[in-house]
Design brief:
calcium, signal, Glyco_hydro_92, Glutathione S-transferase Yfyf (Class Pi), Chain A, domain 2, carbohydrate binding, 6-hairpin_glycosidase_sf, nine-stranded antiparallel β-sheet, seven-stranded antiparallel β-sheet, Beta-galactosidase, Chain A, domain 5
Length: about 775
């Protein structure tokens, strides 16, 4: 290398770290910091998020995505793929739950190709642009650029074709029963898809309509792998359509598309109402504005570019689910197709959510930032109960048999106790009471093992109720939230006392010998042999070291069982000190959640799954908040970034993202159902939160940096704040929380009991 080249190399190398460390002073266009590809480099054996690029508006009824995998594959878009098979309307909340209401659109050129493998085209991420409000990709085999921009229930496509007399657009209504009709005089295609993965009534259909801005030279329908001859209308197992044009070089063909779960007429109404005569750029601008309105509610300053990208990419994920499953009829009334009884009924409906994940931070985020939306969601829950007889625990779009707990109680109680109104709380409380005494038609609905729980004070290990210790812990917490709600509703004292008593049932499966939660047999003896590193069995997607901390409402009670706060803190320390050993025998193989813990190099801390995500904050209850500040920063720095492998496990409907958003702001809702957020330490030197009531809550952290990660002191509106928590009311009133940061732990602040967050045992001495 020549001397001048070598000197230039050294200079560049020296400058590079400084460039990486440069901070972002002001955010004016937050949506441009979002990477929808975060978490998309995933597969069944290892999740880096298990996400797909959702091209959508916040909480939109319909999402769009590029489809790289075959029809029906839950990993519909994988970052490592080479080909795109179509652009799919999707309602998928998770690859494990899979999709419903899906169909795809795909441009092709040259030979008329319509099956999913024949029409597939090579593509590159170098020629791909993914934003929440806009997606573009160059399809190399077709020499076509596809662009998409969304609304809540519709979208616009723009295809840029080469010069050819053989330009086509394929519409695939998918298998399992579908219908298609081409209407050349109107440049229109209509159809419906019935493909689903469960949770739908027999009459379920997703009706769609596509309107082109160019007349068709060619029009066909197809059935399976064959063109259908001279008919332009087909109903069969797997049908679709192909329309063709002659195009000039660079000619743009526009397609406006909308859908409805109600009817073709409603789909056309959705298209007219949400797009109408708007051109592509107008729809794009509106979608971008919708995202900036919501993302701009939280503005961060002073972080690195990577931190800002990660923050807004996570916030984008928080604002996707639950999706709006309602529409506006011709009289502009809110109506919905019921995924529970198949009727079209008035009122709100939301879906695609697993409360086992999202009760922890997503819904508390809505109670903090979106009380009006949360009120609508609560109304939707009341409608679900009226239409199905049960509250949803995992809905997609109707009840699905997935996960455990009756965590709808926590979501409802948290909303009401934090002052959200405008919904039928009496109907919802009736539903909560039903849950507390009954098993449902699916194991995820109601409470599986509830008679044992209510009679013995725990769900036994040896009565063929799987994940029994986890169920006991979650039911006990849910009963705490019911107790708090019953007090607020002035219910009979006997009812209040019943749930207060049940909230302490976590004590019944605590093993004093190991100081861990452990399965217990019906005869009162602990399950043996006991391996605290065994995943599953008595627990859900975790082991005893993960689930022992699931006493959100009585951390001091748990600490007392362990022998006091010092021993409690040592047990917390142990999670990070131990090797990432595991016993997978219950599953018969290493599930992806195990692998994600193993490779994260944080001992037994399994942040890639939800049960342990609150654990680090528990140092605040042990008088050692500086340890929480340290480990929270480690998790944010090491386990998150805005790239395709940016998560350390399943993102799960916004929960793993909501953890990051809350933690970056400097606090977290350890116990929904109380009005407290437990303090960590802010990630950014300044965060400005604009609340729905118009007030602003500003978190200032001067001196914050990669090394200055410890809280030295806290001022709330200029006055010393000595608590390890901040109240919901204090945030809602607006103001400034100033967190002074330093490089060394401050070991005198937050160490005394009066600083600790809420615990049932302390509050009820």
């Amino acid at each position: 290398m020549k001397k001048i080249g070598w000197m230039l190399f050294l200079a560049t190398y020296a400058i590079a770290p400084a460039l990486q460390a440069q901070t972002v002073s002001k955010i004016t266009d937050p949506v441009e910091w979002v990477n929808p590809l975060m978490g998309t480099d995933s597969k069944g054996s290892l999740s880096n998020g298990n996400t797909y690029p959702a091209i959508a508006t916040p909480w939109g009824m319909n999402f769009w995505m590029p489809q790289t995998n075959t029809m029906g594959n839950g990993w519909a878009y994988q970052y490592s793929a080479d080909k795109i098979r179509g652009f799919k309307q999707t309602h998928q909340p998770s690859p494990w739950i899979n999709d419903y209401g899906q169909f795809s659109i795909m441009p092709v050129t040259g030979k008329l190709k319509f099956t999913q493998d024949e029409r597939a085209s090579w593509y590159s991420h170098k020629a791909e642009t993914a934003k929440p409000y806009y997606y573009s990709v160059y399809l190399a085999d077709a020499d076509v650029t596809t662009e998409i921009t969304p609304t809540e229930r519709a979208a616009q496509f723009r295809f840029t074709f080469p010069r050819t007399d053989s330009a086509f657009v394929v519409v695939d209504a998918f298998d399992k029963g579908s219908y298609i009709k081409v209407i050349p005089k109107e440049n229109k295609i209509i159809g419906y898809t019935t493909r689903n993965s469960g949770g739908v009534p027999e009459n379920f259909k997703n009706y769609f309509v596509l309107v082109f801005d160019k007349p068709f030279n060619v029009a066909h329908t197809w059935n399976g792998s064959r063109l259908a001859g001279d008919t332009l209308e087909l109903k069969a197992g797997h049908v679709g359509a192909v329309v063709g044009f002659k195009t000039g070089k660079g000619e743009k063909v526009h397609v406006k598309v909308a859908s409805s779960f109600i009817s073709f007429e409603q789909a056309a109404l959705n298209l007219e109402r949400e797009i109408g005569k708007d051109h592509f750029a107008a729809t794009q601008q509106k979608a971008k504005a919708a995202w900036n309105k919501e993302l701009g509610r939280i503005l961060v300053e002073g972080g690195t570019a990577d931190q800002v990208r990660t923050f807004y990419s996570c916030l984008y994920r928080v604002l996707l689910f639950p999706r709006k499953f309602y529409e506006y009829d011709a009289q502009n009334r809110i109506v919905h197709y019921s995924p529970y009884n198949g009727q079209v009924l008035p009122g709100y409906m939301f879906t695609d959510n697993g409360f086992w994940d999202t009760f922890r931070a997503v819904f508390p985020f809505f109670t903090l930032m979106y009380p009006e939306l949360d009120s609508h969601i609560m109304e939707g829950l009341a409608n679900t109960y009226k239409e199905s007889g049960w509250l949803p625990e995992w809905a997609s779009p109707g009840h699905r048999d997935c996960m455990i707990g009756s965590n709808s109680a926590a979501i409802i109680a948290d909303a009401y106790l934090k002052g959200i109104r405008g919904f039928d709380i009496n109907t919802l409380y009736e539903a909560i009471l039903k849950n507390s005494e009954n098993e449902g038609p699916l194991s995820s609905v109601g409470r599986k093992g509830v008679k044992y729980y209510n009679e013995l004070g725990y769900v036994p290990y040896d009565v063929n109720v799987n994940e029994n210790a986890a169920r006991t812990l979650e039911y006990a917490y849910d009963d705490f939230t019911i107790y708090k709600l019953a007090v607020a509703l002035k219910r009979p004292q006997a009812e209040i006392d019943r749930f207060a008593k049940r909230s302490q049932y976590f004590r019944n499966i605590f093993d004093p010998e190991t100081k861990l939660m452990r399965g217990k047999n019906k005869d009162g003896k602990f399950q043996a042999p006991f391996n605290p590193f065994k995943w599953g069995d008595a627990f859900t997607e975790g082991n005893s070291w993960h689930y022992t901390w699931s006493v959100f409402h009585d951390v001091q009670g748990l600490a007392g069982l362990m022998g006091g706060r010092e021993q409690f803190a040592r047990m917390l320390d142990s999670v990070f000190v131990m090797a990432p050993v595991y016993d997978e025998s219950y599953y018969g193989s290493v599930i992806h959640e195990i692998r994600e813990m193993q490779i994260s190099n944080m001992g037994q801390y399994a942040h890639g799954n939800q049960p342990i995500q609150h654990m680090i904050y528990l140092y605040n209850y042990a008088g050692q908040p500086w340890k929480a500040q340290y480990w929270l920063r480690q998790v944010m720095d090491k386990l998150y970034h805005a790239g395709p492998d940016g998560y350390c496990g399943d993102e799960d409907n916004g929960q793993t993202s909501a953890w990051y958003v809350f933690t970056a702001m400097g606090f977290y809702p350890v116990c929904p159902g109380t009005d407290q957020y437990v303090l960590g330490a802010p990630l950014f030197p300044k965060t400005t939160v604009t609340l729905e009531n118009g007030k602003r809550f500003v978190i200032e952290a001067p001196g914050n940096s990669a090394t200055n990660l410890y809280t030295q002191s806290v001022l709330l509106n200029g006055k010393p704040h000595t608590k390890n928590w901040i109240s919901h009311e204090a945030i809602q009133q607006g103001g400034v929380m100033r967190v002074n940061m330093g490089a060394q732990p401050e070991k005198t602040r937050g160490t005394k009991e009066e600083a600790f967050p809420y615990s049932y045992s302390t509050a009820n001495k």
